């Protein structure tokens, strides 16, 4: 083998490794590519961009802000980053690193891009206009679809809070123009909000930027909702009816007056203290000492009692949960404590939850690979303290998954409760999740039609087991490509039951004021009114099948003046009898018969009908998939245009933005959702 071929193979291997790493990063919360020119792979601009993006995260100061420019003329690259004011430095840098990699993946040749996560934003361009601008410029609207109770009162209290925070942020000084706070809204509902400007703005420009942002609220669908935000490269704000940030104390202003740190001298008229003065001083000091003792001793006693009570309550809570699990599992597991692992064992198995063992980031926390003392490989889900998954969801996952035994469901091996730590221990599935294959340009080639149809059938069998064959009727409520794992033989295993709902056998549907799941996979009746049933999972399955066949995510895109997502494209092709256009190009011309693939698309469209009654149940779906001779009914797309694109229900772009007069921005991907809903 020649040296040139070896170098080419090495480059290809490294490139694939980089793609794998980037694919495992969480999707951007929002992102857009600019149209101000493109660059080539080996150009000076590309080298400058790589240098800039590599250096930005390392140069961020303790206040989460940095901007820089590299290069000259047409090869100049300018970038600006800003992290939310309550985010710690290491978390900020990690967030910016991830955003940089995902933006380059999203915009592989464009010279301009903007995007970010909840904790940070990043923008780069081929000129300094993004650094020199003093205005809001591009802005994103993101919102929580749940309506606020008493919207007029809610908006009134929100307006007062935002105005107060703006005044505080403006006076934040040259290092951090950030303020956060909360106010009690109607029905004792707390509204939390941070507002922020880039610290290089003058107080007046910061004031103007936030005022302009507030002025766009009437254009944002977030008005009257329980949460929303407006994001620009120079300022942003957000509000929610649940806590999502850490309070940051305001920085005290520098002391006024004399800068000399030594005590000022007298005027020369002082007299030396007398003996009586000394006695008086001793008496005064003794009184002070007694006062200190009177204050400190009870305080210490209260602290000790509080700690002791907390420990006792924590042990009782832990015991109560274990007893609850015992009582629910009954005779299925003789000793539920055999499922409970010591935290020290899990910590050792995962090498203290090292990043090297991190498999990915779920909606409620990271997942780590571990090796138990007996050599068994496991996957450990470490629930975040502030993840939003409380004891209810934790009990759900332990109680439900421990009782489920099916080849297409991930097996729960145990759990751990230790203080604030809540861990779930699963069997290790080596090929990660379906989305990491399906939406990766390199790995997708491994999914021929035989494997894809096998995966679709396995998922269907797993859901049928949940809905019909297990002794419990379980609705998953968060079925998506990221929650389908692939074992060594590429068999699918449904995972993540933290959102599952348990039904009694005579129940057919339910209502909830807590909407959970992922945008793009939610059935309309669930996303809009909180109504869910087994048909909600059927809808999610239909979306997933379309993604598997097309190799495309169900996210929105712009085509002229209209917004399209995968479902609307599928229905359009169905009406025009061109459904073969949906098939992944990698499957065309393969050994897989086009007729079988088109039949699967037909079944998927039956699953995503808006009318719940028209959708088949999963048993019927499985029968359709396995029987070619069974005739299929005609799917109907009687969809309300206002809710067709619910996959993008939480984001749009303001038409008032100068940079978006001729183009629009859509959500960058399916977003996890946990929110409270008051059905109307």
TrEMBL record:
InterPro entries in the record: GNK2, GNK2_sf, Kinase-like_dom_sf, Prot_kinase_dom, Ser-Thr/Tyr_kinase_cat_dom, Ser/Thr_kinase_AS
Highest taxon above the source species: Eukaryota
Membrane-crossing residue ranges in chain numbering: 291-314
Gene Ontology terms, MF aspect: ATP binding; protein serine/threonine kinase activity
Gene source species: Solanum commersonii (Commerson's wild potato)
GO cellular component: plasma membrane
Lineage: Eukaryota, Viridiplantae, Streptophyta, Embryophyta, Tracheophyta
Reactions performed catalytically: L-seryl-[protein] + ATP = O-phospho-L-seryl-[protein] + ADP + H(+); L-threonyl-[protein] + ATP = O-phospho-L-threonyl-[protein] + ADP + H(+)
Name the record gives this protein: Uncharacterized protein
Keywords: ATP-binding, Glycoprotein, Kinase, Membrane, Nucleotide-binding, Phosphoprotein, Receptor, Repeat, Serine/threonine-protein kinase, Signal, Transferase, Transmembrane, Transmembrane helix
